[in-house]
């Protein structure tokens, strides 16, 4: 059994652009993802963007606005403003939220994208993830045109 892991991305670029790239990578890798949004308006925004995000292929996905929840099991990517497990996700992608420890145990991987200026709150989340069994953690910090690995 592989260890549970968290990847932190400290970005100064727009969350939407980075999130779409991460979702695309997870989709291409065959991962089942819950993409957690702030609110229903954000869910609708990402729901509409994912159908035409990539020029090479669309990213099939669902949300409560585009697919009945009983069909969500067929979706690799589920977008929601709540932590829910209706598509049996392995991976959670979110924008630097403080999450309940009890719900974290259902994920194998967490991708935590946050504003570069909020590194201290990310360190606190890293402690919570560690308590929840996510022993493998990595931090990537966005530079001008690249990313660099750093200690958390």
Give your account of this protein's structure.
With 152 residues, this protein is an alpha/beta fold. The chain has one domain: 3-Layer(aba) Sandwich (Rossmann fold), CATH 3.40.50. Helix content is 28%, strand content 24%. The protein has 4 helices and 7 strands; from the N terminus they run E-H-E-H-E-E-H-E-H-E-E. It has helices at 15-28, 40-50, 101-104, 119-131, and strands spanning 5-11, 33-36, 77-80, 91-94, 109-115, 136-142, 147-150. It has a 7-stranded mixed beta sheet with strand order 3-2-4-5-1-6-7, sandwiched between helices. Strand 6 and strand 7 (147-150) form a beta hairpin. The radius of gyration is 15 Å and the shape is globular. The two termini are 24 Å apart. The mean pLDDT is 89.
Helix content: 25-40%
Task: Name the poorly predicted regions.
Answer: none
Q: Given the helix and strand composition, which structural class is it?
A: alpha/beta
- What is the class in the CATH system? Alpha Beta
What is the N-to-C succession of helices and strands? EHEHEEHEHEE
Q: How many structurally independent domains?
A: 1
In order across it, which strands form the biggest sheet? 3-2-4-5-1-6-7
Using the coordinates shown, work out and report the CATH topology.
Rossmann fold
Proportion of beta-strand residues: 15-25%
Number of helices, where a helix is a run of at least 4 consecutive DSSP H or I residues: 4
| Main sheet properties | 7 strands, mixed
Query: On the 0-100 scale, what is the average pLDDT?
Result: 89
C-alpha geometry: globular
State the fourth-level CATH superfamily: DNA polymerase III subunit chi
What is the terminal-to-terminal distance?
A: 24 Å
Strands, total number:
7
Which architecture per CATH? 3-Layer(aba) Sandwich
